[in-house]
Amino acid sequence: EGTTKLLAVCQHRPQSLEAAKSLLTSNERMSAYMTELQRRKTSDCPTFNESTDSPSVEPSNARVAVSDIRMPLIWKDTDHFKNKGDYRRFAVFCLLKIGTEIYDTTMVSNIDRSMTDVSFEDVIVFNNIPAGFEFRMEVYSHVLQDDLSMASTPRKIKTKITNSVSKAIGKKLASSLREELNSWEIGPKFVLEAHATLGLADADDRVRTHDLVVENVENPQQQLPLFGHLGCKLAVVPDCVHEERLSGYLSVVQTPNGAGSRGRLWCILKNFQLCLWRSEEDSRHLPPVLSIPITKDTRLRPEEGASKQALRILTNASEKGHLLTADSEPELT
To answer: Could you tell me the superkingdom of the organism this chain comes from (predicted)?
Structure first.
């Protein structure tokens, strides 16, 4: 409501554009909250397996960062190279969405035929995101109407038009423009131009190219000439990299080099490593006595015939791996 009131009294275009952008972002957030609330009301209660006392380990959430957003534009040859034909100018920004978390980029204004792409320097970070996330980016634009007036024509043509129009015609023109402005909606209106949907499979430490789905705009004259692709970097850092996932005592029975038991050690699973210390106190100020890397190729195999709960961690197909035992199954899982 406050943004709407501010939008109604804005007298300068930059102010009205920012107010309209804030209003659109707020409406999208409110819509997302209402959708999530309705989903939670109608969803079934989760069921739990009561036949076992073993705690289930949920997949680690992550921080998702989006940066280096760039979208190429496609103008006609005469518009871009000969600098004539299309005098439109656009103001553009993006909404970035994951679930109910919605962020907006800074707005880039005065995008015209001289520009080959639209780029944003923002770095947007989403926190506590599950592994099966869906990231959606929406591109919004607004045609800067002032740039379709005489202000955007070459100086010589503008001078000729100004000198040739009489005062009477000028008054009629001003009157018609005033009536047209008064008939508009309050503030500038942003139009959804395109969107893209990405997931965990699209994450990378480098900028990658993705498809951009261009929307059908009611008035093609107000459509931003997008090429249909975008470049961005979607980085994902699991919380387990800097947060402890599991901890407890385990006994190391065997190592890959055939060494015997190392006794009962305090273990912490963190940063894709299972680190072991002689005691919990040692883990606070001493380096681990043993570190077992956990990668996507690591395999866990229950050991048969052991007197205790035993698990073999295989980090290489040709290795025997580490054999660990626990006093009870919950400690091992």
So the answer is: Eukaryota
User: Which residues span the domain enclosing 110?
Assistant: 1-39+58-147+174-238
List residues bridging with 66 in a β-sheet.
124, 234
Say if 69 falls within a structural domain.
yes
Beta bridge partners of 318: none
Neighbours of 282 (CB within 10 A): 15
224 within a domain of the structure (yes/no): yes
pLDDT tens per residue across span 39-58: 888 865 544 444 444 445 56
| Beta partners for residue 249, in sequence order | 266
Residue from 66, 61, 62, 143 nearest 103 by CA: 66
Q: Are residues 196 and 265 in the same domain?
A: no
- What's the pLDDT at 36? 87
Asked whether residue 6 falls in the same domain as residue 83, the answer is yes
Q: What is the DSSP string of 257-290?
A: T-----EEEEEEEETTEEEEESSTTGGGTS--SE
- Closest by CA to 15, choosing from 31, 29, 32, 3, is 3
Question: 51: which 2 tokens?
Answer: 């036949």
Beta bridge partners of 194: 139, 214
Q: Which of 198, 220, 238 is the last residue of a domain?
A: 238
Number of domains in the chain: 2
Helix (H) or strand (E) holding 77: helix 77-80
Are 72 and 116 in contact by the 8 Å Cβ rule? The answer is yes
Flag whether the pTM goes above 0.85: no
For the chain, the residue count is: 333
> What does the pLDDT read at residue 332?
54
What is the phi/psi pair of residue 240, to 5°? -70, -10
- Looking at the fold, whether 82 and 6 belong to one and the same domain comes out as yes
pLDDT digits (tens, 9 = 90+) for 3-32: 555 555 565 677 888 888 988 998 899 999
Residue 75 lies in a domain: yes
Q: How far apart are CA 232 and CA 65, in angstroms?
A: 10
- Is 210 a member of any domain? yes
